[in-house]
């Protein structure tokens, strides 16, 4: 007889032993997005976060988001730090200026 597994099902998390990924559709001022959480142990590559322009190192949990309009393919997916994704509507666009450029 095998031992009993006392594991609760956590909402929004994929079932143990494979299965589908946990992903949600989020509505925002910039449109609808499909958002998927990536656990730290599944993050095998380093990515650049578009929110803060910093690297997301291997092994760090983050989210992957792409437009939900049906046109999203692998080129449209972006890997974000979780706080950067949650604050994307409060951030100003990152504009690179030269050293002596005027700030308007």
From TrEMBL:
Skewed-composition ranges (Basic residues): 1-10
Region (Disordered): 1-30
Protein name (database record): ATP/GTP-binding protein
Origin species: Actinomadura rubrisoli
Origin organism lineage: Bacteria, Bacillati, Actinomycetota, Actinomycetes, Streptosporangiales
């Amino acid at each position: 007889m095998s031992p009993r597994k006392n594991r609760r099902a956590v909402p929004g998390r994929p079932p143990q032993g494979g299965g589908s990924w946990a992903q949600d559709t989020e509505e925002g001022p910039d449109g609808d997005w499909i958002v998927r959480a990536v656990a730290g142990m599944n993050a095998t590559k380093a990515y650049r976060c578009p929110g803060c322009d910093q690297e997301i190192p291997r092994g760090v949990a983050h989210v992957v988001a792409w437009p939900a309009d049906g046109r999203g393919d692998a080129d449209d997916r972006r890997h974000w730090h979780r706080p950067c994704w949650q604050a994307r509507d409060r951030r100003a666009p990152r504009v690179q200026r030269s050293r002596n450029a005027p700030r308007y």
